[in-house]
Design a protein that fits this description.
3 domains, 3-stranded antiparallel sheet, about 45% helix, globular
């Protein structure tokens, strides 16, 4: 008896899926995308189908509409694209989360005035509440760390709407940490990524990557650096142990309360040790309950 081979049904491409979603023929959908959301860069380079596909995969993952600017793309200077999501896209993602249970925002009473900007609170703090968590995600963003000065002498939203931009920045970071959002960037980050990617070498006309020159350290200073590196490594190892003791849910809850998504994002050992002390207290509480 000859067994019939099962027919393998090809999965629809991301182009087809998104074209159907917007009720457009596939070719028309791609051309519309190229003419609007992914228009040619300053040199006239048109996005390739591979770059468009990469962009659409991100848009599909977070169910964002590229035609209403919930998500758009910057062409990378080294090729590829940088997916950008504004405040509308991030709040759309937040409001779709089943465990989302509202948020609160507070501001510092003291204000500061940055270069060419309006007076603004020194920090903004967001608390995102979750239906399935005992504690909220708390994120605080400081004006002097996120402020973007005028670009090439021209004012931007950070100069004309300073308070609003700080509010947006704090809310976006809280959404990221609270719901584990990765792979997308806000407009400020997109600009910084592009600025840092490549330096155009005018003489050769070729893109080159700027590499910092190595600096020779005195013997005593070199030992200090090694010591700091060892302390940092030991701190990360303690975090791994804390995760096993607390369990992932409580572990990431404590990290989130302190404004971090992962332990390797902590750059200062003293800050990490404070969080570890907090984790130890949480572990003691759990032990006492038993």
């Amino acid at each position: 008896m000859v067994e019939e081979k099962k027919k393998q049904v090809a999965k629809p491409s991301v182009f087809r899926i998104m074209a159907v979603k917007f009720n457009l023929p596939q070719d028309e959908f791609i051309n519309t995308l190229k003419a609007t959301v992914m228009s040619p860069d300053k040199l006239g380079k048109v996005a390739s189908n591979a770059e468009i596909a990469a962009f659409l995969i991100v848009a599909q993952k977070y169910n964002l509409d590229p035609f209403t600017n919930e998500i758009y793309a910057f062409p990378g200077k080294k090729g590829g694209i940088v997916p950008i999501v504004g405040i509308d896209g991030f709040t759309t993602i937040m409001n779709r989360q089943k465990e989302f249970n509202g948020y609160e925002m507070t501001y510092d009473e003291d204000e500061a005035t940055m270069e060419s900007a309006k007076s603004c609170p020194k920090w903004a703090e967001v608390k995102i509440y979750h239906k399935n968590r005992e504690h909220p995600t708390i994120v605080r963003e400081y004006l002097d760390e996120v402020y973007v000065p005028p670009r090439k002498g021209y004012s931007g939203p950070w100069q004309t709407h300073t308070k609003r931009m700080l509010r947006h920045k704090a809310l976006i970071q809280a959404i990221r940490l609270g719901f584990g959002i990765t792979g997308i960037y806000d407009p400020d980050e997109g600009e910084r990524i592009l600025d840092a990617q490549v330096i155009e070498e005018k003489s050769a006309g070729k893109p080159v990557v700027a590499m910092p020159e190595a600096r020779q350290l005195p013997a005593g200073e070199e030992e200090q650096v090694k010591s700091k590196n060892n302390d940092y490594k030991a701190m990360l190892e303690r975090f791994q142990m804390a995760k096993k003791v607390l369990g992932e849910k409580k572990y990431y809850e404590v990290l989130g309360r302190n404004g971090y998504e992962k332990s390797n994002k902590i750059r200062i050992v003293a800050d990490g040790n404070k969080i570890l002390d907090e984790m130890n207290r949480e572990a003691d509480k759990e032990a006492n309950k038993k």
